[in-house]
Amino acid sequence: MPLVTSQIVIAASPAAVRAKFLDFTQIPKYSGSSIIQSIAPKTSKVPTELTKGDVLRVSLGGGMSFSPTVLENSEQAFIWRGYIPLIICGDHGFRFKEVEGNNQVTLFEQDEEYTGTLSFLANWKGQKEKQMKHFDEFNRHFKKWVEEK
């Protein structure tokens, strides 16, 4: 099960970072050339009301889009699952963790864990490093936007 992960420290509380993250309409304002261009619920729910089983529309750079299913939407994490049945499945997580001893600083983590018949391709010919680069870029843009006063 290949795992790709990236993290960054943001000078804001986990609740503030989560609130900014769930403001999906703002993604185009900070994402720049990041891989994630938009996230939107397929229902009329607002992002804070999304629950396990709800479906999203996610657009990536390069014109790719897909419809993952929400696995978790809690104060600690927002996780979705995208998949091609019997071939590959990816659980993509965004985590909001308090930096120990400081409730006004957040460790923002982004990760993806792959399973399925072709999950080994996530490590093939630099794919893991390429994806980590995309995660790092999104995280930097997101941090800058969150920390703007």
UniProtKB/TrEMBL annotation:
InterPro entries: START-like_dom_sf. The lineage of its organism: Eukaryota, Fungi, Dikarya, Ascomycota, Pezizomycotina. Gene3D superfamilies: 3.30.530.20. This is Uncharacterized protein. CDD domains: SRPBCC_4.
